[in-house]
Design a protein that fits this description.
The structure holds 2 protein chains of 2 kinds.
Chain A: H1 2-14, H2 20-23, H3 39-61, H4 63-86, H5 97-107, H6 115-127, H7 143-154, H8 156-159, H9 179-186, H10 192-197, H11 209-221, H12 228-248, H13 253-260, H14 264-271, H15 282-302, H16 309-326
Helix pairs in contact in A: 3-4, 3-5, 3-11, 4-5, 4-6, 5-6, 5-7, 6-7, 7-16, 11-14, 12-13, 12-14, 12-15, 15-16
Chain B: E1 2-4, E2 34-35, E3 41-45, E4 55-56, E5 63-64, E6 69-72, E7 81-82, E8 87-96, E9 102-110, H1 117-124, H2 139-148, H3 161-164, E10 175-179, H4 189-196, H5 198-212, E11 216-222, H6 226-235, E12 242-246, H7 255-263, E13 278-282, H8 283-294, E14 301-307, E15 315-320, H9 325-331, E16 339-344, E17 351-353, E18 366-371, H10 388-392, H11 399-407, H12 411-416, H13 427-431, H14 438-453
Parallel strand pairs in B: 1-12, 2-15, 10-11, 10-13, 11-12, 14-18
Antiparallel strand pairs in B: 3-9, 4-6, 5-8, 6-7, 8-9, 14-15, 16-17, 16-18
Helix pairs in contact in B: 2-5, 4-6, 5-6, 5-8, 11-14
The chains are: A mainly alpha, B alpha/beta.
Chain lengths: 335, 454
C-alpha cells in the first residue's frame, strides 16, 4: 500500500492540477505506432500526386478545368456533409476523402460537359457511391467512377465520345477529336509526343501521360498506392496492344497509343488504386490490375466506348470481394 | 565457433514481412548492469510460468534464507519458486500482475544479512564459467537441476525451461537455437547480458544442448548488436557453437520467425519448434541454466531494463524477482513530468499498468515508460482496406479480416482465416493508417475461439 501511495504523490507533484488517473493511461499493446501513417495522410498524398495532372488540366483547358474542379470538389464536400449528417454520424470532411473523390471526378470529366453534369456526378458519387454503403471504407465501387458512369449514361449526348469536341470553344484542344476517338472513328493515330505531354483533347486530367506518371510514381513510392495494381494493368495493356500492333503492322505506335491515351495511366495510378474498392493482398491486387487491363482492351476493341477505363474499373470493383476470397494468403507454416 | 553471415544461412537471415520501428535502444544500451540494493520486501506471485501455479511450502512468520524453495511446481508445466532474499514470510496474500491476473503471492520482508552489490553480481553473472563441464553431467542431471532452479524462459513468455530442455525420446532435437535478437524496441537487458556475461550464456548453451542431444547450437543475433556478436564470438571460441548474424527487423525474436530466418524452416501451423527439430530459448535463460547447473543456484534474480523518456535515468538492473516496479523506477531517478504510460516489457508486446506496487516477475524483461509524445492516441477511423496490415503480418495473415470477424463475433470466419496463428506481435496495429486496434480485436477473437472450444 505504501508503494501505491508513493506513486500517487509522485504524480500529483509532477502534474499539478492533474490526478494520477489522468496522468497514467493503460491500453492494450502495441503502445507505439507509425507516425507517418494515417488515412488523412494517404488522402493528402493522393492530392499531392494529383497536382501535376491538375496543373496540366488548367494549362490545357483553362477556365473549363477550373469550373469543373470547383464544382466537383464543392459538391462532393457538401454532399459528404449532408449525407453523413443524415446518417447521424460525425462529420468526416477532415479525412479529405471527399475532396479526393471530387478532384478525381473533375479530372475525368470532358471540358465541354455542362455544369450540372459535374454537380450531379459529384452528388451521386458521394451519395450513391459511398455514403449509402456506410461511408469511407464500406463502398464496393469507386465513388468517382459511380458518379461519372451515372452522368455518362444519363446525359449520353453531353458526355459521350463525340461531346468532347466543340467547335465553338475558346480553347484549342477541344476543337480536335480525342486521340482514342480519332482512332476509333477514322483510324488516325495522334502523335505520341503530344499524347505523352498531354497536348491533346480528352478528359481534363487524362491527357498528359507524363503528369500521371509523375504523380503515380510518387504514390507508389509513398506506398499509398499499391504498385501491383498499375503494374498489372499496364503490363496487360502492353501485352494485348503489342499483339494487336504486331498483327496490324503498326510498328509499335499502337502500343504507345493505348498506353498514353484514354486515361489509361490516370486510371492505373489514381482510380484503380483506390484502396477501398480494390483487393487486400498483393496477389489479389495484381489479379485486379490484370483484370482491368484486359477489360480496358476488350472495351476499346469491341465496344462503342473508345477508352474503357471507367467500366473496366467498375466491373473489377464488383469482383473484388471474390478476388479477396480467392487470394487468402497461405498462413506461415500452413502446408 | 563459426560465424554465419545472414547471406550464408538457409533462411537468409530474415523472414517475410515485419516492420522497422525506431529501436530507441540508445537510451539504455551503454548503461552497464547495476545491482539494485536489497529491497525491504519482495512479493512473489505463485504463478510465474505459463502453466500451473506453484504450491507454497512456507507459513507466515517463517524464516527463509536467500535461495530457499518457497513454492514447488508439482504439475508437469509448473516451476519451483525461491526466495531471492533472506527474511521472514509476512503473509500469503494476493497480488495483481500487469497482465491483469490476480494471483496468490508470498510476501517476504527482508531481515538479516543479504548478499548484495558486487558480490551478488559476481554470484549471478560474473566469475568463471567452465565450458568443459557438460561432459561430467548426465543429461537428466542437467534437466533436473534446471527443474530444481525454477527456470522459465526469460524472454517474456515464461515457459518452464525444464519442459523444453530435457531428454525426450519422442521428439528429435537437432538444433538448440538461442535467441539473442531482442527485437522489441527500447529493451537492452539481453544485450547487456550478452556483453557482460557471455561466458554464462555459452556454458548454459552447452549444457542445454547436451540435455536435448542437439547436434547444433546456433545463437541468433541481429546485426544492430555488433558488440554482442563480438563478445559471444570470442567466448565461443573452441566450441561447436555457431553464431548467426541476422537482419534487424521486428519481430525477428519471435521463435517461428527466427527459425525461418536461420534454418529456412517453417514451424507447421499450430505446431512447436520441436516439430522441426528445434529447441529455442533466449540468452538470459541460458545464463540462468549455467548458474542453476554449475553453481546450483535457483533463478532468484534477473536483469531488466528500465527505460524510456518517461524515466529520469534509464538503466539496466540486476534485480531480485519480486521487487516492486516502484522500487525499480525509484532507483532510476523516478518518473519524469511527462511520463504517460508504464509498460511491463517493451512497447510492442508489453502490458501497460498503473499500480506501481506490482512485482517484477521471472517473465519481466523490462519496464518501458513512454511520454505523452511517444504514445499513440489517434482516434480510430474506418478501415480503408489498404492492406498494409497484410503487408507486414509475419504470420502472413489478413489482420483486418480477423479483427472485423472478431468484432462481429464471426468465429467461423475468424477460424477460416487462421486466427489462432496470430501471436500478437502488433505489426498490423503499428502500421494501420486508420488506427484500428487490430491486435486487441484479434486477441478478443482468440479468447472467444478458446472459450467456444471448452
Amino acid at each position: 500500500m505504501a508503494n501505491m501511495m508513493n506513486a500517487k504523490v509522485d504524480l500529483t507533484e509532477t502534474n499539478p492540477g492533474e490526478g494520477a488517473a489522468q496522468a497514467l493511461h493503460v491500453s492494450p499493446s502495441p503502445h507505439i505506432g507509425s507516425t507517418s501513417n494515417s488515412t488523412r495522410r494517404m488522402m493528402i498524398d493522393v492530392l499531392i500526386a494529383l497536382t501535376p495532372a491538375v496543373a496540366m488540366a488548367i494549362y490545357m483547358f483553362r477556365a473549363y478545368a477550373l469550373v469543373h474542379l470547383g464544382l466537383c470538389v464543392a459538391t462532393c464536400l457538401a454532399a459528404e456533409y449532408l449525407f453523413v449528417r443524415m446518417r447521424g454520424k460525425s462529420i468526416s470532411l477532415n479525412d479529405f476523402s471527399a475532396a479526393v473523390t471530387g478532384v478525381i471526378l473533375a479530372l475525368s470529366m470532358p471540358a465541354t460537359a455542362p455544369w450540372y453534369a459535374s454537380v450531379i456526378a459529384s452528388a451521386v458519387a458521394i451519395g450513391l457511391g459511398k455514403i449509402i454503403f456506410g461511408g469511407l471504407g464500406m463502398n464496393i465501387f469507386n465513388p468517382a467512377m459511380v458518379g461519372r458512369a451515372f452522368v455518362m449514361i444519363s446525359f449520353a449526348g453531353a458526355m459521350g465520345a463525340a461531346a468532347y469536341e466543340s467547335g465553338s470553344g475558346w480553347v484549342d484542344a477541344i476543337s480536335q477529336a480525342t486521340p482514342m476517338n480519332a482512332f476509333k472513328q477514322a483510324g488516325t493515330l495522334t502523335p505520341i509526343g503530344d499524347m505523352f505531354l498531354g497536348l491533346t483533347n480528352g478528359s481534363l486530367g487524362e491527357t498528359s501521360a507524363l503528369a500521371c506518371l509523375l504523380g503515380g510514381l510518387y504514390l507508389c513510392y509513398r506506398r499509398t498506392a499499391s504498385w501491383e495494381i498499375p503494374a498489372g494493368m499496364i503490363a496487360t495493356v502492353l501485352v494485348i496492344a503489342g499483339v494487336v500492333d504486331l498483327v496490324g503492322g503498326h510498328g509499335g505506335r499502337l502500343i504507345l497509343h493505348h498506353l498514353f491515351g484514354g486515361a489509361l495511366l490516370f486510371g492505373a495510378f489514381f482510380i484503380a488504386t483506390d484502396p477501398v474498392s480494390s483487393p487486400l493482398t498483393p496477389r489479389g491486387k495484381a489479379i485486379f490490375g490484370i483484370g482491368i487491363g484486359a477489360l480496358v482492351m476488350l472495351l476499346r476493341f469491341l465496344s462503342g466506348y473508345p477508352e474503357g477505363v471507367m467500366f473496366a474499373v467498375l466491373l473489377m470493383n464488383a469482383v473484388t470481394p471474390l478476388i479477396n476470397r480467392w487470394t487468402i494468403p497461405r498462413t506461415f507454416g500452413e502446408y | 565457433m563459426e560465424l554465419l553471415q545472414s547471406k550464408a544461412l538457409p533462411g537468409k537471415g530474415s523472414f517475410s514481412h515485419g516492420i522497422h520501428p525506431p529501436d530507441n535502444k540508445s537510451l539504455s544500451r551503454d548503461a552497464a548492469i547495476e545491482v539494485v540494493p536489497t529491497p525491504k520486501r519482495v512479493v512473489l506471485p505463485l504463478l510465474q510460468n505459463i502453466g500451473v501455479p506453484s504450491k507454497p511450502i512456507v507459513q507466515p512468520k517463517q524464516q527463509v534464507v536467500a535461495g530457499e524453495t518457497i513454492g514447488v511446481g508439482e504439475a508437469f508445466i509448473s516451476t519451483n519458486l525461491h526466495s531471492p532474499i533472506t527474511g521472514v514470510v509476512e503473509k500469503i496474500g494476493v497480488c495483481t500482475l500487469p497482465n491483469g491476473r490476480h494471483l496468490p503471492a508470498v510476501y517476504i520482508k527482508a531481515e538479516g544479512e543479504q548478499l548484495s552489490g558486487q558480490a551478488l553480481y559476481e554470484d549471478v553473472l560474473g566469475g568463471h564459467w567452465p565450458k568443459d563441464c557438460p561432459i561430467i553431467y548426465h543429461p537428466s542431471t542437467i534437466s533436473k537441476a534446471i527443474h530444481e532452479a525454477g527456470i522459465v524462459g526469460l524472454g517474456g513468455a515464461a515457459f518452464p525451461t525444464h519442459v523444453k530442455v530435457r531428454p525426450d525420446d519422442t521428439k528429435m532435437i537437432d538444433t538448440l537455437m538461442i535467441n539473442g535478437c531482442e527485437c522489441e524496441p527500447y529493451l537492452t537487458n539481453d544485450y547487456r547480458v550478452m556483453l557482460e556475461a557471455p561466458g554464462a550464456i555459452i556454458a548454459g548453451a552447452l549444457h542445454g544442448a547436451r540435455t536435448v542431444s542437439a547436434r547444433e547450437i546456433i545463437i541468433g543475433i541481429e546485426d544492430n548488436k555488433p558488440a554482442a556478436i563480438d563478445r559471444l564470438k570470442k567466448e565461443a571460441e573452441g566450441t561447436v557453437i555457431k553464431i548467426a548474424v541476422l537482419k534487424t527487423k521486428y519481430p525477428q525474436g519471435s521463435e517461428k520467425q527466427l527459425i525461418k530466418a536461420v534454418l529456412g524452416l517453417e514451424v507447421p501451423l499450430g505446431g512447436l519448434p520441436s516439430d522441426v527439430g528445434v529447441a529455442m530459448s533466449n540468452v538470459g535463460t541460458m545464463a540462468a541454466i549455467a548458474r542453476g547447473v554449475i553453481r546450483e543456484k535457483p533463478l532468484t534474480h534477473r536483469v531488466i531494463t528500465v527505460t524510456g523518456r518517461g524515466v529520469r535515468n534509464p538503466k539496466n538492473l540486476l534485480v531480485p524477482i519480486g521487487l516492486s516496479m516502484q522500487d525499480a523506477i525509484d532507483y532510476c531517478g523516478g518518473l519524469t513530468k511527462d511520463a504517460a504510460r508504464i509498460i511491463a516489457g517493451g512497447p510492442m508486446m508489453g502490458f501497460a499498468f498503473s499500480n506501481l506496487s506490482m512485482p517484477v516477475t521471472k517473465g519481466t524483461s523490462g519496464i518501458t515508460i513512454l511520454t505523452h509524445d511517444d504514445v499513440r492516441k489517434e482516434k480510430e477511423t474506418s478501415c480503408v482496406r489498404c492492406g498494409r496490415c497484410v503487408d507486414v503480418c509475419p504470420m502472413q495473415l489478413v489482420p483486418t479480416k480477423l479483427a472485423m470477424a472478431s468484432r462481429h463475433g464471426n468465429l467461423s470466419l475468424a477460424h477460416q482465416y487462421n486466427i489462432m496463428a496470430c501471436f500478437e506481435c502488433g505489426c498490423c496495429t503499428y502500421v494501420c493508417p486508420a488506427h484500428i486496434k487490430l491486435v486487441q480485436l484479434i486477441r478478443m477473437g482468440k479468447a472467444m475461439v478458446v472459450a467456444s472450444r471448452k
